[in-house]
Amino acid sequence: MDAAAPGAVAAGGRVAACTAAARAEGVRRGQRIRDAQRRCPELAVRERDTGTEGRLFEDVAAAVAELAPKVEVVRPGLCAIEARGPARFYGGEEALRVLVQDTVVEAGHDCGSGVADGLFAAGLAARAGQGGVVVPEGGAAAFLAPYPLSVLDRPELADLLRRLGVTTLGGFAALPSGHVAGRFGADGALAHRLARGEEPRPLAAVPGAADLSVRAAFDPPAARAEQVVFAAKRLAGELHEGLAAGGLTCVRLEAAAGFADGRVLRRLWRHDGRLSATAVAERVRWQLSAWSAGRPAPGTDPEGIETPVPGGDGGDPGEAAWGGIAWLELAPDQLVPDEGRQEALWGRSPLTDRIARAADRIQSLLGHAAITRPVLTGGRGPGEQVVRVPVGDLPPGSVPDGPWPGRVTAPAPAAVPPHARPAEVVDAAGGLVAVSARCTVSAPPAALAIGGTTAAVTGWTGPWPADEHWWDPARARRRARFQVATEDGAAYLLAVEGGHWHVEAAYD
């Protein structure tokens, strides 16, 4: 969606995640899982994977691209196009809205489409009615007025406004702008502009014919996705340097790849702030994954005849670049003045920048997964609360808010083995200690055996039961945890599951 355009079409909805039937039952984006499943018991819940979302949504963006030359991917699940030109070509805004919806549905995805003055209003219009609505030009504020404050995706601001007696976007929009900025700060002022149907960031067109795009050529053509991703990181750094020289930053970026067979594929990506080099590389990775899914496997043409792959090394076909990529280009499509950022004290460069550059050099030598970083996630066990993500990849998502009943309490264990270690907990008579369905311990633990070594138990506490994913038979787990101290001064976190004991972690 172009901020200068009076209209925008937003094609949205959760790709392959929320069907029209689920929406009819009251399932909405941002709901708690238990609330969504209460309204729609047959709803399937899967762990979020941003890479998979990007690949799946590429089909939607490609379908919309058949109708309009420039499709902007706001995020996996929502894309936008300028409405003025296509609406005139297809016979009006309502005709364009219906055509976009029908095209995406024919591609095999549930979809809603809406037309409005700005991207925020167009996104809500795509979820209104039975498949979207057209908001009359100049009517965005009236359309938004009845909506609750929760659609702003700012829970703290919404909670504060509700305590002040403001419950809808219309009530929030009626507040004086100066008072809102003074009371709620810059983010509150931004939300206030959204509630009034105004664009949060007006387009700042920059005159001049300077070409700020950056390009990398591959000779021979790149046959591995990692080659292109590393080049995207380097190009993103060069692009940011060129923009910084002119006091600019980019909030919409076009990534284009030219294949050895002559095809050129382009995609627009949008971000509310500066797109970092990591974010650019991640989006290029999504595009490569999506394009590979729609092409024949390397080494075959569409008729199944074997053909050589330029630069191929006989590796995993899923990692090959489908005929070879000859060049990659990044071009800023929407420029705004750079408001700057706070540097470290005394002019020093931020430490994180130096670490990122060093990590890039090591990854170029040892591979993308050679360096990982721990990322906190939600979970009950200590091994579930941290995942390792390759440096440069986006984390799996925000930390769930819990409250995670049955979670292991502080202090945290000192060591968590990569794989569960089998153990045996026996009572004074030598029988295996068991835990009943009512969480009753058959007998006090007397000895602990790990790897052929047995030690007497001097203290224990538990059990802490955890019945997880009970609604999904394939992922359901029922276990109980114990903390156990032994006579040799060691302490362990143990778990019993299906009658079998194992060591989850060890304490100092």
Query: What's the CATH first level of the largest domain?
Result: Alpha Beta
Strand content: 25-35%
Strand order of the largest sheet: 4-1-3-2-7-6-8-5
Helix-strand string: EHHHEEHHEHHHHHEHEEHEHEEEEEEEE
Q: What level of helicity do the residues show?
A: 25-40%
Roughly what is the average pLDDT, rounded to an integer?
75
Specify the overall morphology: globular
Q: What is the CATH superfamily classification of the largest domain?
A: Reverse transcriptase/Diguanylate cyclase domain
Q: How many structural units, i.e. domains?
A: 4
List low-confidence stretches. Answer: 1-8, 11-20, 202-209, 296-321
State the distance separating the first and last CA atoms: 55 Å
User: How many H/I helical runs?
Assistant: 13
Rg, Cα atoms, Å: 27 Å
Question: Could you provide a short overview of the structure?
Answer:
The protein is an alpha+beta fold and 508 residues long. It is built from 13 helices and 16 strands.
Reconstruct the topology from this structure.
Layout lengths: L7 E5 L7 H5 L8 H7 L10 H16 L6 E4 L2 E5 L1 H7 L2 H14 L5 E5 L2 H8 L13 H5 L10 H9 L5 H5 L3 H19 L18 E11 H21 L2 E12 L4 E7 L6 H17 L26 E18 L13 H16 L5 E5 L9 E5 L30 E6 L20 E4 L2 E16 L8 E10 L4 E7 L2 E8 L1
Parallel strand pairs: 2-7
Antiparallel strand pairs: 1-3, 1-4, 2-3, 5-8, 6-7, 6-8, 9-10, 11-12, 11-16, 12-13, 13-14, 14-15, 15-16
Helix pairs in contact: 3-12, 4-5, 11-12
What does this structure look like?
This protein is of the alpha+beta class and 508 residues long. Helix content is 29%, strand content 25%. The protein folds into four domains: 8-144, 2-Layer Sandwich (Alpha-Beta Plaits); 214-296 and 318-341, Dna Ligase, domain 1, CATH 3.30.1490; 347-394, no CATH class; 421-507, no CATH class. It is built from 13 helices and 16 strands. Strand 13 (453-468) and strand 14 form a beta hairpin. Helix 3 (50-65) crosses helix 12 and helix 11 runs antiparallel to helix 12 (277-293). The radius of gyration is 27 Å and the shape is globular. Mean pLDDT is 75; it is low at 1-8, 11-20, 202-209 and 296-321.
